[in-house]
Design a protein that fits this description.
The structure is a homodimer.
Chain A: H1 16-26, E1 35-36, H2 39-45, E2 48-53, H3 63-72, H4 76-79, E3 83-86, H5 90-102, E4 106-111, H6 116-124, E5 128-132, H7 136-150, E6 153-154, H8 161-178, E7 183-187, H9 192-204, E8 209-215, H10 220-227, H11 249-258, E9 261-265, H12 267-281, H13 291-296, H14 299-302, E10 309-314
Parallel strand pairs in A: 2-10, 3-4, 3-6, 4-5, 7-8, 7-10, 8-9
Antiparallel strand pairs in A: 1-2
Amino acid sequence: MVVSHQIPMGKYATSIDDVRAAAKRIRGVGHRTPILTSKTLDQLAGRKLFFKCENFQKIGAFKFRGGWNAISMLSDKDAKKGVCTHSSGNHAQAVAYAALKRGIPAYIVMPNNSPGVKLEAVKGYGANITLCEPTSEARQTTLEKISEKTGAEVIHPFNNPNVIAGQGTAALEMIEDLGNLDAIIAPIGGGGLMSGTCITTRSLLPNTKLFGAEPKGADDAYRSLKEGKMLPQESPNTICDGLLTGLGENTWDILKDHLNAIYTVSDDEVIKAMKLIWERMKIIIEPSCATPVAAVMSPEFKELKGIEKVGIILTGGNIDLSKIPF
Amino acid sequence: MVVSHQIPMGKYATSIDDVRAAAKRIRGVGHRTPILTSKTLDQLAGRKLFFKCENFQKIGAFKFRGGWNAISMLSDKDAKKGVCTHSSGNHAQAVAYAALKRGIPAYIVMPNNSPGVKLEAVKGYGANITLCEPTSEARQTTLEKISEKTGAEVIHPFNNPNVIAGQGTAALEMIEDLGNLDAIIAPIGGGGLMSGTCITTRSLLPNTKLFGAEPKGADDAYRSLKEGKMLPQESPNTICDGLLTGLGENTWDILKDHLNAIYTVSDDEVIKAMKLIWERMKIIIEPSCATPVAAVMSPEFKELKGIEKVGIILTGGNIDLSKIPF
C-alpha cells in the first residue's frame, strides 16, 4: 500500500497514526467485518459497490470501534471510576459493552421514551441506566450530575478524538482489503464515522472522493458544507434515528476540509434502499445505515463520471423487528 | 485433510467423487459462501455453532448448487432444447438462473396460487412460466406435456444424482474451511441437501454425527427413519414452505444409512429461531432455513454429550418481506 501522509500531523484532533493505533487496540476484540458485494446492486447503481458490513460488528454497529478505542485508552486510575454517556442508540450499547469488557462501571443516561428493546440491550451489557426527560438539556445536565458524583469519564459519541480514531478503522480495513477505491461514502450524524473515514482515506488514498449521506430531514452537515460554517441541527424529522444529532467542532473541522460532497435522501428513498438490501443481500440494516445506499442509487449520484469502485460503510443493523417500516 | 472413503463407490446414486467434480463446476460461478459465528448463539446453544450462509448463495439459496451442477453437465445437444421443472420455490429460481447462465431455455411449471414475488423472481431470470392447478397431479402432467413438446430435460429438485452432488458441495466447503466438526445439521425436505451432506461428510469425517431437522407439520423423513422405510409426506402443514415435499428413492437410500437422528420442531420454534438469527446475526433467513437452528436450541439437542462444534447449513433467505411471521 502506498502510504502518503497528505494530512500534516497535528492539524486535526485525530491523525492517521491515531487510527492505526486504534486498529491495534480493536484487533482481536472487535470483528474484522466482511466486505460483501452484489451483482444486482452493482447493476442498479451502474458501478461496483463494496459493502463494509459493520452491521456484523460487536453490538451490531460500527460504534463499538470508537467506544472501545476511547475506553481502552483510559489509564487504570481513570478507568476504575467508570465511564458515562448519554445516548439512546448504538453508542450507549458500545460504551456499555466496552465497559463490560474492561470490567469497569458504565453509566448511561437515556431518555424516558427510549424503546424497551434499546433499554434491554444496554441493560444486557450490565450498564447502570438513568432515565431523564427526552430533551437535550435534561440529558446533558443528568449526565453532568452523574459524572460529578461518580467521577466517571464522559465518552462523547463523536467529538472525542479517540472515538473518531476508532471509527476511522472501518475505512482502514476496507482500504487494506480492497486497495484502491474511487469513492467512499458513509452516513453523517455527529460526523464521527465520516471524519475518521476522511482522516484514513485522505492519508492512504489521496485521490479517492469522500462523500457523506444525510437524511433530508436532518441535513445540518449538508447545509453546513454549503454555507462553509457549522450550522446546528434544527428540529430533525427523519426515520433515521441514528442521525438526529448536530456536528461537533472536531468532526466539522475535518469534514469541511475533506468532504467532496454530501448527498441528501428522503425517508422514502431510505426505506426503499433498506428493503433492497434486505431483499437482495439478505442482511439486516437499520434506516440510518441505508442513507448511503439510497444516495448511490439516486440519479444525481449515477451521473458522476470517473467513479467505478465505491466503498459503502454499512453502519449498523439494530432495528426493532416489530417496527419494520415497509 | 484426512480423506477416508467410508462409502464404497457405486453404492449410492451419488459418490464423493461426484461431489468433488460438482465443486469444480460450481467454483467461480456460484459463491463460496461465508461461515459466520455468533457468541450469543453459542451461549444459547451451549456449544460452538458454525453457520454456512447459503442465504448469500446465488438466487439466495443452496439450490443454485444442484441446479447449476445438473444443468452444466448436460451435453450441448441435450442442453440446447432447454430444461424444465416444476417448483414454486428456490429450485425454480435455481433452474431458471442456471439456464440463463448456460444460455438455454428454461420452462418452469408453477402452481397458479404462487406468490407474485416468486413468479417475478423466476421471470426475472428469463424463464418461460406455465401456470397450473395447485395439485401434485396437475404439476406433474403439465411438466410431462412441456417436456414432451419441447424436448427439454427434466431437472428433478432432489432425486437427480447430479443435483444431490451439487448440494453436497456446501458441506464440502464447510469441512475444507473448518476441518473437524462433531456434527452437521441441515433441514430435510426432499432430502437432496441432506443426502449430499451425508455423502460428503461420511467420506471426509467418518465420525461426525449427521442430523436432519424437520417441521413437526411435515415430518415424513422423521417417521420414515423411525419405521425404517420411506413413508410419504401426508397433508403437510407448516410455515416452512421449502420442506413440504416427500423424499425420493435416491435421497432416502442415503439418508437411511447415514443419518444419526432427525429433530422435529414446531412452527413456533421455527419463528422464534428465525427471529433470533435476524436479531442477533443481522442476516435474513427463511422459515425452512430456521429448522436446524430451532433444533439445536431445543432441550433435547442440548442434552447431547460429546458434541462441541456443530456446523449448521443455513439454506436460504428468500422470504416475502411483506409477510414476516413475527
